[in-house]
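thread: overnight batch results

M.L. [08:02]
morning all. the overnight job finished for the chain we discussed friday. pasting input first so we're all looking at the same thing
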Amino acid sequence: MRAAASLQLGASNARVSFSVRWFKVIRVRGSFSGIAGTITVPGSGSEEPKVTMSVESISVHTGISLRDKHLRGSRFLDSGRHPLIRFESDQVSRHNGVWDVRGRLVLRGLEREVRASVFEDVVLGKDLRLTADFSVPRRPHSVGTASGIRALNPLLWAIADEVYVRVELFVPATILHPTAEAVPAR
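M.L. [08:03]
and the structure it wrote out:
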């Protein structure tokens, strides 16, 4: 009987980055450094794996400090009122080597269902890199929106609605594949 396994996620083994188009030609990229979470892989029972993750919205970094300040502000991530962006899986399954993860994302206090295909890649012979790419529409979460006369600001309308998110997790192969002692490097 296989024992349950759990892995704590943090800045050392998790990365969260994003990109969004601005004026349809410029791609603004950024990342978050304040990451915490857990991957739980159950034992031989019938339970499903579980992923929980939270990102500190104040930890956003794009390389331009003024832009970062705006992103932390009330029109974008509203870090003062919503310090965490959270994800919790509802269903995790694996088909043909690809993980299908479904769950709930809470951004600015508003919840939405997210689904992502997660791909495995061997890194350094013993760890797996799990990569998930998905998009989040910003307007339903009131990210980068304004009301009244401020809604006419052309800079806000220049931002594309879809924000593309990439999550990378570095996981020991034995967590997901308990029978693997060390996965050979490709």
